[in-house]
Amino acid sequence: MVLPDSVTTCLSPPVHYAICKLGFEKTDTYDINNILSGNGEVCWQAVTEHVSYLESDQSVDYIKSIRLLGPVCESVNLYFKSLTKEEFVVQYESWLHWTNCTEVFLEVFDVLQYTQATEVALGLMKLTSCLERALGDVYLLKGNDCPFLLRDLLASEQLADVFGQAVMNVLRVFIGSPHGLNLRNVLWHGFASPQEIPAKYCAMLLFLTAGLGQLLHTYLLQTEGVLVHRPSVIFISLEEFDAFPGKYLNNEILSIAEELVKLSSFVLKIMLPFWISALTAFKQSRYADSVILLLPQLEVGLRLLFTTSNKCPNRMLTAESSALYTTFDEMLAKHLDNEEVNQLPVVLEEPAMASDFLWDFLNHQEGPRIRDRLSHGEINLETFPREVANQIVGFAITILCRFSDEDMFSLKEHMVIKPLMDCASCYRSRFHPISRLKKQVLECMKSIRLWAELPTVPEEQVQKIKGLEGNAEADTLILMISEIISQLQHYVPKNCCSSDDLINSVLTERLLVELCDTHICTLYSPRPVLEVVAVLRRISAQCHQVSQQVIAGAELRYTQWVNKTLRSRQRHNYRRMLNSINFLSSVLLLILLLITLELVSVHSVCKKNPFDYQQYLKFLKSVLQYTENLVTYTSPEKNKWDETMELTKKTLIKLRKICDRKLMLMHLAT
């Protein structure tokens, strides 16, 4: 393995030259007054004159442009250092309001006064993310779907129409183009160490952001337009972010973590300041700063393991503009570009845990996607929740511990870290589609359970409605459900409860809970499995909607009954509803049971019976069709309970026949 101390840079020679040297080759002093008007506005024409173009196709010559802009950046940096905070606020604050993150940019000005390398890098990461978000808002003045990638956003016609192409070319020298300095990417992907980012580039981007505000102000006056800011992403259901509870991240363990970063082979020595600053920020309750600093370091540490285990040390460095960076997406993939198996999971002591956690918090679409949302400016940094930061910090500490010499720690320190390590070892995916399906099933089950608490009309009052006797057909259908459940019971995993009376809702609910608690491998789920899970999720969602409609409808009809506002036909329909819902709850629980049994066998069926896979999917889609029809019939607009019973009868007969085929598939899978 590459020793962390032996790595002196993660920038390839050309990228290192472009960032650390090219902009310093011209040593002449540039007069700030050339690009600054008397009232402090940016003279854009003077700035754009420093961008050079290739004679061949008039595209930007990034090498010459970086060299020419170097003295300008230095002049801006010195100019900002000459201003007091009050002078900067008076002159530039109003021009930064368009970003909707004014405070972040004011903080960057503060950082530039002291030029502490780690803080400059952090400020630049925050600046670029906020600037990207603001530019996306401007894009939406003229376009519909904002590009996801910064390079596509900066190259768009929409922004060129607002700011001018020459202005956008200046920005692309600094960010967004792999041919330029590409400061955003080299920082957010963990390639640049603190001392490799010149403060003058951070100062220049702050200056340009204010200048963009001036141009935008003029554009909005001319077009009578209004800039609308997209709302920030808000993390909901924070109780799901409890893999590493905050109670385990006390000052004692954070102090140990500060020692761990100096000893762990996971940490590159050149990146040590980032780790120390991240832990300090967490202790100071600066949770967004802590996570922003840690995410690139987790990436570079995993890249070190990835390139070593897969014997591709050259991938440790930034790739050139003609190739891709080695990022989280590739490191978490099952196979490499050459189709060989990725060896990184083998190196990790808890491969499923580490990969599941990273997929959950970084990649899965229904997960928090923390790195994407932070780096693209989608999150309000001031209100970033500690619950989310706990997860990244907790995970980072467990990784540090795994790649440290155990003999270097006392028993007491081990006892402090042990709870975190236990949390890591028992981690199970929370945001994989399979995990979300389990959650859906349990939520639907809880909703159906509420049916027993619905208010109902006393029997003697219902009897007054002539022409409505007891529903014998429902009893027949319940017997049919019992037969299907009896068949399915043979395929319930041995470690789950079993009973001859699973038609009993309490026993069925208990079985559902146990089935959902069964561990199912989610890492690298093949496409057929994900297709099946997608259908199962749609079925579950339809069942939940039916349950919600029944609850709302029953409560409304009861209130109308008590208030005597129901017409004769509505009273008859209400009686049909009361006769049907107990039976319908059994049907929905049966479907949930089918879903969970499908779930625990889905990997085996898709793998061992590829030729039966389409029939298997067809079976599920027939169930989906029934639940979709059920949503229609039980809706407030339709409220067709006779049709619901008839549809259910036909479906149960069909299910019993199809179930024989399904059970054979499940038998082959076991």
From TrEMBL:
Which parts of the chain span the membrane according to its record? 577-597
Protein name from the UniProt record: EMARD protein
Keyword tags? Membrane, Transmembrane, Transmembrane helix
**Which InterPro entries does this one have?**
DUF4209, ERMARD
Which Pfam families does the record match to this protein? DUF4209
PANTHER family documented for this protein: ENDOPLASMIC RETICULUM MEMBRANE-ASSOCIATED RNA DEGRADATION PROTEIN
Domain DUF4209 stretches: 131-211
